[in-house]
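Worked example (supplementary).
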Amino acid sequence: MQYRSPRGLRNYGAGGAERLAHLADFLDTVDPKRVTFSFWYDCNGGAGCPVGIAAAEEPWFQAQGLTLSRGDKLSENHPVYDGATEWRALTRFFEIGIEELRRMFDRTGYNGNVRPHPLEVAGKIRSFLAVKVEAA
Amino acid sequence: MLSFFSEDLAIDLGTANTLVYARGRGIVLNEPSVVAIATVRGRTQVLAVGDEAKLMLGRTPGNVTATRPLRDGVIADFEIAEEMIKHFIRRAHQRRTIVSPQIIISVPSGATAVERRAIQESADSAGARRVFLIEEPMAAAIGAGLPVTEPTGSMVVDIGGGTTEAAVISLGGIVYSRSVRVGGDKMDEAIIAYIRRNHNLLVGESSAERIKKEIGTAYPSSHGDGRKVQIKGRDLINGVPKEIVITERQIAEALAEPVDVIVDTVRSALEQTAPEVAADIVDRGIVLTGGGALLRGLDVVLRQATGLPVAIAEDPLICTVVGGGRALEHMKALRTVLQD
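After joint prediction of all chains, the assembly is encoded as:
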């Protein structure tokens, strides 16, 4: 399935769960070679963390206010949302805690693997959302 | 005739370090390619160059900047680079002879005509009598003792601070070369980015370089986390200084991307090599030069990726300048490898 950004849709402020669901759908289309937890986003080649790739490339996420701060160096690229940067930006954007974020977007959630398959990350996001819905 | 009276120089103008070889004396200078500049009443003055300037990196007051004039192997700031070249030539030459020196400068094989011209003009204005350029992989191959003028193919992979050059050399010429702007600096950047993302800790370039040298590896051990090192930086959450422990395995993860680029570059160069030359490389293998060759396990990774023997040159850090020096000493025999 080819992921399509809903460019035509009117921008609106989605909730954290909807944003995570969108990220999971987006990950279904990402080339596995691009996903790494080693850094946020590499402007030369476009490898990076799923959230970094979404912030840099996907208009839907950008319309939600998630953007990528770009620098001359690899280490200067990071996600920005609502005046916060990096992990703090993600806690605000997805409206979840840092521990839950790390389980989905950090090597510690994948037995130390920094290059998980994007479908594995998408699966983890969907499991997290399912548990959240059940709990609700 | 003039060359008899002058003390000619070979310069390896690197992104990280500049080395100078003086004919008859060997390597006379090896210092970081860093310049510290002060702006006083709108005018810029060079405060320090080399070792002294490197100590100032990241620690300068508002009106002083310590900068690297080379980026990705080529001159990024022409004026500052010129000042640096002049300074190093003066230091190495010390007016030992009254005749201006002939200078050989190594350039990345991927440098554009404009970049080559910029380097040549910098040396011209620094007082050179004549300036020759030599392609870095050629100089590195000569310095590593490869038989560059013989009718046999040799492959050299020169991993510098700013660029990695994979070249196949035969009969005094480069048969094929591929240059990518990935080297030791990109490895340092990858370490900074990794620690920043995974530990919320901001570390400086010098700390990243130290970590790379102490526990950096391209091929982590199959069991355990390997060696550990303590690092200090600024916590990005609360802004205060913090110390953490990082492992060899984590640094291998951080370096995976730049190492992959190097492996792809070598593979791509091999794919483009003519069958006869490729057969020579199967017999002789690949020789690694440059500071990046000292990254632990890189030879193992390349051996596994290519199936070819891979050797690290005896003293990889000085191969390029020694190669330039040999070209100076044997100008007649090696004239074909130089460009006016």
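Two points are worth noting when inspecting this output. The radius of gyration of chain B is 21 Å. Chain B touches chain A through 17 residues (CB under 8 Å).
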